[in-house]
């Protein structure tokens, strides 16, 4: 083994590269090797070199690499830097922290908030529009009856326009609007002036006008257009004529008021009870928002209001008649609401229109009123007469 690789400085007796070394077996002279002790010194065992990257190689300067316990050419297996970066210090051990580093603080996750039941509409706008409509109706009802009839006729025409427009947009059905609008307004006026007889005559003439009016267009789709027109004439203006017929009585204004109050109270009770306690669906395929608990609320509210109205508002009326009247109103109003929901579901729409903020369209307010009108008219005639 070449001692020049130990790194000791040249001393006396040191031979350079051109000198010839001593005879084999003789100890080299110098401070590290005393001749007196040379014979007593045990030579260091030679440890085979561990080849690095393919075996022993010269360093390029004529000096061979030294290997042994003090010279390790093999990178430390525990050294995380030597294996990846050969120029890093091979003997410096990376200090290991026996305690794990604390985790970085994580932002607190927001806790899920319980979902609140939503009304599904702008209640502020709905209440404001409802109060405004109520004021107009009551004022016209008790000031001049003819004005109230005009309000009903306008509502009928707008409702027909919404219904026919939705039918054309969603189903391609072209129900003739002009004869419907003229005939619908005539039906309301005829019901107020001539009663049931005038309403039936106006209905027949309106149906005839629908058949003739549609003949001016190509025959394709004639049957479905005429059928839709006849349905619209019966559904909107003809049922509305019963409100006008209620107004014909001496206490007609109070009868109409009872009709309106009971219908609104029924809807309000159904909404309030169903929103707070509703669990069981009433008709999930038609109107998923309605519940059986809401129906019970409608019945309870309407019966209580009916008893009070028949006792204190209608002449010769009694509280038990009001209970029956309230029950009938709750059932008919609910069926009317479900009927229009069936139409809207078939058309694939949420509301019939957007005329009334918070309510939708005029038809969305007439849905429970229209089928309830003939029920209230008939029961009041049975209980207290036609007046």
| DSSP summary, beta strand count | 2
Percentage of residues in helical conformation: 40-55%
Strand order of the largest sheet: 1-2
| C-alpha-based Rg, rounded | 50 Å
Distance between the termini: 136 Å
Mean pLDDT: 79
Uncertain segments are 1-35, 50-86
Shape: globular
Order of helices and strands: HHHHHHEEHHHH
Strand pairing plus helix content: what structural class? mainly alpha
Taking the sheet with the most strands, its summary is:
2 strands, antiparallel
Q: What's the helix count? A: 10
What percent of residues are in strands?
Answer: under 5%
Description:
- By secondary structure, this protein is mostly helical.
- The protein is built from ten helices and two strands, in the order H-H-H-H-H-H-E-E-H-H-H-H.
- A hairpin with a 3-residue loop joins strand 1 (281-283) and strand 2 (287-291).
- It is globular.
- The model is unreliable at 1-35 and 50-86 (pLDDT under 50).
Question: What does the secondary structure layout of this molecule look like, with pairings?
Answer:
Blueprint: H1 35-38, H2 123-143, H3 145-171, H4 177-214, H5 222-246, H6 252-277, E1 281-283, E2 287-291, H7 292-312, H8 319-347, H9 363-366, H10 369-384
Helix pairs in contact: 2-3, 3-4, 3-5, 4-5, 5-10, 6-7, 6-8, 6-10, 7-8, 8-10
């Amino acid at each position: 083994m070449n001692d020049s690789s130990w790194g000791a400085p040249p001393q006396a007796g040191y031979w350079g590269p051109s000198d010839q070394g001593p005879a084999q077996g003789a100890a080299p002279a110098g401070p590290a090797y005393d001749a007196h002790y040379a014979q007593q010194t045990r030579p260091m065992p030679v440890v085979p070199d561990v080849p690095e990257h393919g075996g022993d190689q010269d360093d390029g300067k004529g000096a061979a690499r030294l290997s042994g316990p003090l010279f390790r050419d093999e990178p430390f297996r525990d050294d995380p830097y030597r294996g990846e970066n050969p120029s890093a210090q091979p003997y410096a051990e990376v200090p290991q922290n026996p305690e794990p580093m604390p985790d970085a603080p994580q932002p607190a996750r927001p806790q899920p908030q319980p979902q609140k039941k939503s009304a599904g509409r702008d209640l502020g706008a709905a209440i404001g529009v409802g109060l405004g409509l109520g004021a107009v109706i009551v004022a016209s009802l008790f000031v001049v009856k003819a004005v109230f009839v005009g309000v009903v006729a306008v509502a009928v025409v707008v409702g027909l326009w919404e219904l026919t427009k939705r039918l054309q947009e969603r189903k391609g059905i072209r129900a003739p609007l002009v004869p419907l609008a003229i005939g619908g307004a005539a039906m309301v006026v005829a019901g107020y002036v001539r009663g049931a007889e005038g309403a039936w005559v106006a209905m027949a003439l309106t149906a005839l006008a629908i058949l003739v009016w549609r003949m001016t267009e190509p025959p394709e789709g004639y049957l479905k257009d005429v059928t839709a027109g006849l349905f619209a004439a019966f559904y909107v203006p003809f049922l509305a004529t019963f409100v006008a017929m209620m107004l014909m009585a001496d206490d007609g204004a109070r009868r109409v008021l009872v009709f309106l109050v009971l219908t609104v109270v029924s809807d309000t009770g159904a909404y309030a009870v169903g929103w707070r306690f509703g669990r069981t669906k009433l008709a999930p395929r038609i109107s998923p928002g309605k519940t059986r608990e809401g129906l019970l609320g409608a019945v309870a509210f309407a019966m209580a209001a009916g008893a009070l109205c028949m006792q204190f508002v209608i002449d010769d009326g009694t509280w038990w008649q009001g209970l029956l009247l309230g029950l009938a109103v709750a059932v008919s109003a609910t069926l009317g609401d479900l009927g229009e929901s069936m139409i809207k579901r078939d058309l694939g729409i949420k509301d019939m229109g957007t005329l009334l903020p918070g309510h939708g369209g005029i038809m969305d307010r007439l849905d429970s009123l229209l089928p309830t009108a003939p029920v209230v008219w008939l029961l009041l005639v049975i209980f207290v007469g036609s007046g």
